[in-house]
Amino acid sequence: MPTFRFPLPRVLLALTGVLLAAAVGALAVGGSAPVERVNALAGGAPFTLEELRPGPPPPPAPVAVPLPTPVDPPENPYAPEPAVVLGTIEIPRLGLVEPLNQGISLHSIDRGPSHWPGTALPGDPGNV
User: Helix, strand, coil % (nearest 5) of the chain?
Assistant: First the structure.
């Protein structure tokens, strides 16, 4: 058997074996003691986690939103109608900036884009 000039490799090998044996012994002898202790402590608890966890939230109740009903077109398409401006339509890419009129008579349509009375406004329910 060759002799080592420095006993460090043998010492490290022996120390590794001792530590490994100690770890295996600790797991074999006292490995389940903490689990049993935790179970004993939890047995006296008034609630379990399953009882404290809230269930899934109830689904929101459906809200019935009445959809607007459009107004019938006038019998006389050129009937006078007051000029009511609801807002402005802007399409920057086309360079379009126009007032949005309220009404469906041809007088309103001749003034520019118009909103049909009784229908949903942009952003309201009822638009596709």
Answer: 35, 15, 50
Task: Please state, in angstroms and rounded to a whole number, the distance separating the CA atoms of residues 83 and 116.
Answer: 13
Name residues whose C-beta falls within 8 Å of residue 71's C-beta, 6 or more positions apart in sequence: 104, 116, 117, 118
In order along its 128 residues, the chain shows pLDDT tens digits of 566 566 777 888 899 999 998 888 777 776 656 667 777 776 666 666 777 777 888 888 888 877 778 888 888 888 887 888 988 989 899 999 999 998 888 888 888 888 888 888 777 777 66
Sorted by where each begins, the domain ranges of the chain are 8-52, 69-128
Paired strand residues for 87: 100
d(CA 4, CA 11): 11
Q: Alpha carbon 7 to chain centroid distance?
A: 64
Amino acid identity for residue 103 in this structure? G
Which amino acid does the sequence have at 79? A
User: pTM of the entire structure?
Assistant: 0.40
Query: What are 119's two structure tokens?
Result: 């229908």
